[in-house]
Design a protein that fits this description.
heterodimer, A: alpha/beta, 9 strands, about 35% helix, B: about 290 residues, mainly alpha
Chain lengths: ~250, ~290
C-alpha cells in the first residue's frame, strides 16, 4: 500500500490573487490516515475543496489517477447544510447510495438494509423516520457519517468533522474513522484539536498556506513546527509582489 | 339562499365560472409543488421577481398579436422569464452579486420595460388586464394551455424529484457524486417560469406568484415532510380558487384579487391555528414522556 492516492504538484489556490494554498507539493498515500492541521486561514478547507474540484487552481495540479471523482466522499463543514430541510434521516442516509441508484434508479433492498446498518453503526438505530430538523448537531453529524458509510468511497475527506460536536459523538465517530483506516481507505481530515491529531492520526500535514511539515505525526507536530506555522499564516501582505515561479525550486 | 344557490349554481349556470374553476385547480396542481420547492430553496422572492420579469415578453406578445392572446403573450413571457433567469444566474456566478440582487436588478428593468411597451399601444384597461389578469375570460384554448403546463410540471417534477431535492438539501454532495446539479437548477427555474406564465392570464403578472407562494407558506406551517407539503400546497391553491370565485361571484368583487386574498386568509388562519402556531404559546399542550 505505498502507491499514491492523491498527489499535489506545486499546487497554488488563490482568492483574488492572494494565495490561500501556496506551492504545495506532496502525496497522500493510499490507505493513509492524515490530519490536516494549522492556524485559521491556513488554507485547510480550501485544499479539501480543491481536491473535490470545487475551486479553480491558480497553478500546479492535483493528480488522482486511479480514483474517479465520484470515488471521493466529502463531508463539508456543518454550517453548509440547511438542517431544517423537510427530509427524513432514512432518506438522507440513502443519498449515499447515489452511485448505485443515481438520479433516477430504484433503491435496491441491499442499499436499504445497508442504510439501516450504517445508521446503527453511528448509534442512531431506529431513527429512519425522524426528520433531520429534529436532530441535535451531534446526531446530524452522525447521520452525515452514516451517509459516508453508505457511499463506500475509497478516499474520504472530512472538513472539521468534530467542531461543535460533543465528546461522546466525537469518540464514536473517531471509531468509524479508525474503521475506514483499517479497511484500507484513504482518510484526510481537517482538524483543530492537536491532542486529537496526536492521539488518532498517524500522518499529519501541518499547513500554513505552504506545508510547514508533512509526515508522521510525531515528527510533524513539534513545538517548533507549530510556532513556525503560526507566524507564517499571520503574515498578510496587501502589497505582495507577483510570485515568480523560476525563483522557487520544486521540492 | 340555499347551499345550491350559493355554491353550485354559479358553476352550473355559467361556463366562464366552470372554466375559471378548472383553471384555478390546474394552476394549483402545478404552482403549489413548485412554490414549496422554491421556498425550500429560499428563493421566495426570486419567484416574485420572475413574475415581474415575464411582463415585457408578454407585452411584446400583446403588441404583435394586437389583443390579449394567451399563446402569443405566454410565449413572449416564457422567453423573457427564461432570459432573466439565465442572465441572473450568469451574473451571480461571474460577479460578487448574489442571485437575489441580480434578480432584483433585472426584474425592475424588465417591469419598467413591460409597462412602457403596453402603455405605448394599449389602453389603461389593457394594462390592468396584463397586471391583474382576467380569470373570468379564460377560453378553451387558454384552459388547454394552463392544463398542459400543470401536467408537464407534475410529470417533470416526478421524474427529477430525487436530484432536485438532493440539490436543494445539499448541493455540495450532489456535486461530489457527479450529479449535475446546475442542470436541475435550470430545469427547476424553467418550471417556475412556465407556471408563472400559466398563472399570468388568470391572475396577471403581479399576482401570478400568489398562488405559488401563499399555498407553499401554508404547507410549511402544517406539514413536516415534503410529499405532504406538496399535497397541502396544491390543495390550498385549489380551495382558494374555489372559495375566491364563489365570493367574487356573489359579492361582485374582482376575481383575481379575491382568490389571492382567500389564500392569504388561509395563510393567516394557519399562522394562528397550525401545529407551529402562535396559539400554542398561550395554550401549551402537555408534553410527552419521551
Amino acid at each position: 500500500m505505498t502507491h499514491a492516492a492523491i498527489c499535489l504538484r506545486d499546487l497554488t489556490i488563490a482568492y483574488d490573487r492572494h494565495p490561500a494554498v501556496h506551492h504545495l507539493n506532496g502525496t497522500f498515500l493510499a490507505g493513509s490516515l492524515t490530519a490536516v492541521a494549522g492556524p485559521n486561514g491556513a488554507g485547510k478547507s480550501t485544499l479539501l475543496k480543491a481536491m473535490m474540484g470545487e475551486l479553480p487552481l491558480a497553478s500546479g495540479a492535483i493528480e488522482r489517477d486511479a480514483i474517479s471523482a465520484t470515488d471521493i466522499g466529502y463531508l463539508p463543514q456543518a454550517v453548509e447544510i440547511d438542517r431544517r430541510f423537510p427530509l427524513t434521516v432514512g432518506d438522507t442516509v440513502l443519498l449515499g447510495a447515489w452511485r448505485q441508484a443515481g438520479a433516477f434508479g430504484a433503491i435496491s433492498m441491499a442499499s436499504a438494509s445497508e442504510a439501516r446498518r450504517a445508521l446503527s453503526a453511528v448509534g442512531l438505530e431506529g431513527f429512519e423516520r425522524r426528520h433531520v430538523g429534529s436532530l441535535s448537531a451531534g446526531q446530524f453529524q452522525r447521520v452525515l457519517f452514516a451517509r459516508l458509510l453508505l457511499q463506500d468511497a475509497s478516499v474520504i475527506l472530512l472538513d472539521e468533522p468534530f467542531t461543535a460536536i460533543d465528546a461522546r459523538t466525537t469518540r464514536d465517530l473517531l471509531g468509524i474513522v479508525q474503521r475506514w483506516h483499517q479497511d484500507g481507505r484513504t482518510v484526510i481530515a481537517v482538524l483543530h484539536d492537536f491532542e486529537q491529531v496526536r492521539a488518532h492520526f498517524p500522518e499529519t500535514l501541518l499547513l500554513a498556506r505552504e506545508a510547514v511539515s508533512w509526515g508522521p505525526t510525531e515528527t510533524t507536530m513539534t513545538a517548533a513546527n507549530l510556532l513556525r506555522a503560526r507566524t507564517m499564516a499571520e503574515r498578510w501582505d496587501e502589497d505582495a509582489a507577483i510570485c515568480a515561479p523560476q525563483d522557487r525550486s520544486i521540492a | 339562499m340555499s347551499i345550491n344557490h350559493l355554491l353550485i349554481a354559479p358553476f352550473a349556470d355559467y361556463g366562464f365560472m366552470r372554466r375559471a374553476l378548472v383553471a384555478c385547480i390546474a394552476l394549483g396542481l402545478g404552482s403549489g409543488p413548485v412554490g414549496v420547492l422554491l421556498m425550500l430553496r429560499r428563493m421566495s422572492l426570486v419567484g416574485d421577481a420572475m413574475s415581474h420579469a415575464i411582463l415585457p415578453g408578454a407585452a411584446i406578445g400583446f403588441l404583435i398579436a394586437g389583443c390579449l392572446s394567451l399563446p402569443a403573450m405566454g410565449l413572449g413571457g416564457l422567453v423573457a422569464g427564461l432570459s432573466v433567469a439565465l442572465l441572473s444566474g450568469l451574473v451571480s456566478r461571474t460577479t460578487p452579486l448574489r442571485e437575489d440582487a441580480s434578480f432584483a436588478s433585472f426584474y425592475l428593468a424588465s417591469l419598467a420595460l413591460g409597462v412602457l411597451i403596453v402603455s405605448l399601444r394599449g389602453s389603461n384597461i389593457d394594462l390592468l388586464h396584463v397586471l391583474f389578469g382576467t380569470i373570468l375570460a379564460i377560453d378553451a384554448t387558454a384552459l388547454y394551455f394552463v392544463g398542459g403546463i400543470a401536467s408537464l410540471t407534475l410529470v417533470v417534477l416526478a421524474i427529477v424529484y430525487r436530484p432536485l431535492v438532493a440539490e436543494c438539501f445539499d448541493p455540495g454532495f450532489l456535486r461530489a457524486v457527479g450529479g449535475r446539479g446546475p442542470l436541475y437548477h435550470l430545469l427547476f427555474l424553467f418550471l417556475v417560469v412556465i407556471n408563472l406564465v400559466a398563472g399570468f392570464q388568470a391572475l396577471g403578472t403581479l399576482m401570478a406568484v400568489g398562488l405559488m407562494m401563499l399555498p407553499a407558506a401554508v404547507a410549511q406551517l402544517w406539514a413536516r415532510t415534503l410529499p405532504i407539503m406538496v399535497l397541502i400546497a396544491a390543495g390550498t391553491a385549489a380551495v382558494s380558487g374555489l372559495v375566491g370565485l364563489i365570493i367574487s361571484f356573489h359579492l361582485g368583487f374582482a376575481s383575481g384579487p379575491t382568490i389571492i386574498l382567500t389564500a392569504s386568509l388561509i395563510y393567516g388562519g394557519s399562522l394562528l391555528t397550525g401545529p407551529s402556531a402562535a396559539v400554542h404559546r398561550f395554550f401549551p399542550r402537555p408534553h410527552l414522556t419521551g
